[in-house]
Amino acid sequence: MKSYITVKDILGRKHFENVEVIAGVDGLSRLVKWVHVVEVTNIRDLLNGNELILSTGIAWKEKEGNFVYLLEQLIDSQAAGLCIEIGTYTSLIPQEMIDIANEAQFPIILFHKEVPFVKITQDIHALLINHQYEMISNLERYSQALNKELLTFEHHHEILKCIQQYLQVQVIIVFSNEETQFIPEIIGHRRKTLLNLIARNNDTMPNSLTHTSRSIAKIPIHLLGENYAELIIMSDERTLTEYDQLILDRTATALAQFLLRNLYVEEKRRVEETEWLNGWLENEKSEESINEYLAYHTPHIKPKGALVCIYKLDTLAKMTNVDLTYFKLYFRSIFEQQGFSLFAIEKRNTLVFILINERMAVPWKERIEEGIHRLKSSESPMVNHTFNQLIGIGKYEKNLTSLYKSYETALETIRIQEKLPNRSDSHFYDDLHIFRFIYLLNQQLNLNEIVYEYLESIIHYDKKYNGKLMETLKTYLSCNGSKQETAKRLFIVRQTLYHRIQKLEKLLGEDFMQPEKRLVIEMMILSHEFLTSSKQTEELDLEAF
Question: What is the pTM (predicted TM-score) of this model?
Fold first, then answer.
């Protein structure tokens, strides 16, 4: 149904048989919402816009300046047009008035015979009221039809096609992740032009209509308290009306219901998938069940083995669903290129990725390292803001039923990393070496007591004199007792180093470089760093709490 009445429509009504449009022919598509008889020249505050004005011209009789003043007010007030009865008070329309009206595309219509203004207003008002009633009925029919079809729709594009075909407008939906879809689809320069137009109107038209070369209306779509998308309609051919806005509102409501239903179904599927994957990680799935699951979800691959990668994010709770989805998709795209199929699970403030290996040509560890490097070097702000993180990679398991072992070792890697001074240096369980032993030893014994048995004198000396003996000892051991290399790394002269070594010999014994004792001291230094870092981490956690 045509949702508006124009000046051109009015010209086809009774009493408009003998009229002449002398100006503003290009404005005959202007909307008409009401009809007024005006016989005064000061009317700026009396109009709301879209009124068709009837006049005999008595207000400006023989005063061309008054006519100019009235015409400018009508144009500024967005009136629909001016109908003048010729003969009684006005016989000629000055060319200046015609030029002004043509420039503004404002119709000036002449009655060449006397007409009954009362009957004209009655006829047009009845037309407008009946049309309004018909629009309300059609709006209700549209809503009912849309809600009925909503049960059978499989994609939101079908809803957008409904409003596009009903109103014959360009439909655009802009999602919160800035993905934009057009119905009907447009490409190239025109698409770019419309996107620029939408961007320019964002601040000037929150949810309303605008009077530009294109008429635009838009409405936000809210889901679960968040702005999920924005639905926009646009026309080059006509001005959008309140009826278009109502249809847009009804469509947005239906679209929100459809999207919410899809999110619910997706969430239910995701929960079911998460429960299954958790069962796999907890060693509750048989080989047959695992093979069936992989055959259904990834039928194109032949697994060569699998491992678990745990990604712990301090900012996970602050990330929106869109941010989290984007990050998981980005993570997936990187590691799929490295020859892995992925399944993801959210657990508290961690993301657990199950990586199914598809290749054997290049060692899995090299490909994982390359993926992590690409992830950390990403320039995407969505990815970069997550990198206050820990990455723990468990043992590689050739047998898929043993994936729980990779999960357990990935968890242990995260726990150890949280206690290491340089967290990001060791992502792989296989690379933790001595720290795995220290971690287990600390769980079974009072490791701090053992450390102090060997290093107490050096720790106290450094605290009292700031002697940097611990740093010197660690460097001296790592240089295999080379005094030249040690002095070079510490940026000190040899005499200073000799003095410190003498002090170390006094505190540790002259045999501290003997193989067995040296091995224990090196382990105690690493244990001391492990315990010190653990204490600092706990203090930071308490402060954050």
Answer: 0.47
